[in-house]
Amino acid sequence: MYLTASLEPAPTADRTSRRRKPYFLKTVVVEGTTIPVRFRLIHEVLLFSVGIVGAACAPAVMILPTPAPPTAEPLPSPEVSVSGGQLAFSAFRMGEAHIYLMNPDGTGLLALTQGMDRDHEPTWSPDGSRLAFVRTLMDSPSNLEIFVIQSDGTGLRQLTDHAMIDTQPDWSPDGTQIVFVSNRDSYVERRGPNIRNVSVFEIYTMNADGSGVRRLTHTLGWNSMPVWSPDGSLIAFVTSQTGNDEIFVMNPDGTGGRNLTQQSAQDAAPAWSPDGTRLAFHSRRDGDFEIYLMNADGSAQTRLTRSPGWDIHPTWSPDGSWIAFYSERSGNFDVYIMRADGSEIRQLTTHPDFDGHPAWRP
Questions:
Q1: In this structure, are residues 246 and 239 in contact, taking their beta carbons and an 8 Å threshold?
Q2: What is the DSSP code string of 186-235?
Q3: Contact (CB, 8 A) for 251 and 237
Q4: Which residue in 91, 172, 187, 276 is deepest, having the highest Cβ count within 10 Å?
Q5: How many CA atoms lie within 13 Å of 62's alpha carbon, on the beta-carbon side?
């Protein structure tokens, strides 16, 4: 759906469902009419419904539940041998969302960021030395910026500095560029006496130091969740240009887009296997958000998870034998791992508040 609306500053958050699907209240102006709307967090995307108008998707602010007082978390003991580096993830542990590291067996929990700002959506540089992530600035909650930090927590640096939203970063395989999503090219449209803000989320690239920003997509749908293929030849992303969230691939210059999923239900969060032959993703095609697998050309789409709660945001282990994801199957969002065939599912985190957006260290 191509949304033409303007979002106003948000009132208080709705905390009635803190440990399941977080909600957030705002107002939206549609054709000059101000309507209260209720936002729901889905796969890093906020779905919102506006009365009987329907639903739309957009990459947007990471709305997380209000944290409970910090409590000690019993981390699981190793049960299976998992190869690969640490997992970075976003979690509430010290009163706000920060980036954490842990071993792939759930041990060795380490806070990488701290402070009053909200940090989420970590993604590793190809050499595993740095993490790019998104920070929601608490002095300006509607403003999201992309930062980078060394793997030991030093060298924090802001890459984007724009009044609009910059989010969902991913590194190029050679580490020289970062692809990301922004609504910086939203605009005002005039139709006769009517004036309205048109919010567009498009995909951009920038150099790893934040310079050289370049827009890749120019579509009538919202575009989100870009991820570079391991050989650098393609970028997979989510787009609503067909009227429904689908996973597309395009060349790194934005040309040659083609639809891989071709489903009537929402498909999102593509993640390339390390060898570039497959994509993991999540989909609502079977009535609930579950993790699926497909070949790089879109063939052989196969369901991996089956649970009554959402299973979302897959990420591969460096050797391609495991997939991490986060799920609310326990009644709360936690990080899990499973074999690449969907077997041996294991819960890594058990904290009473949100744990999500895992990213496996190369």
A1: yes
A2: -EEEEETTEEEEE---EEEEEETTS---EE----SS-EEEEEE-TTSS-E
A3: no
A4: 91
A5: 30
Q: What is the pLDDT of residues 299-357, one digit of tens each?
A: 999 999 999 889 999 999 999 999 999 999 999 999 999 999 999 999 999 999 999 99
Positions of the chain with pLDDT lower than 70, given as ranges: 1-81, 83
Amino acid, res. 322: W
CB neighbourhood size of 340 (10 A) = 18
d(CA 273, CA 295): 10
Q: What is the pTM of this model?
A: 0.80
Give the span between the Cα atoms of 102 and 116, in whole angstroms.
22
User: Do 13 and 63 contact (CB within 8 A), yes or no?
Assistant: yes
For residue 228, count other CB atoms closer than 10 A to its CB: 22
Q: Which of 69, 61, 51 is nearest to 23 (CA)?
A: 61
For residue 80, the 8-state DSSP code is: S
CA distance 230 to 311: 24
Structure tokens at 134: 């998104």
HSE, CB side, 13 Å, CA atoms: give it for residue 208: 15
| Distances, alpha carbon 62 to alpha carbons 145, 170, 313, in Å | 12, 17, 14
Torsions phi, psi for 104 (to 5 deg): -70, -5
For residue 144, give Cα distances in angstroms to 65, 213, 275: 17, 16, 32
Length of the chain: 362
What are 63's two structure tokens? 């709305």
Pairing of strands 258-259, 246-250: antiparallel
pLDDT digits (tens, 9 = 90+) for 212-221: 999 999 987 8
Provide the pairing of β-strand 45-49 with 33-42. Answer: antiparallel
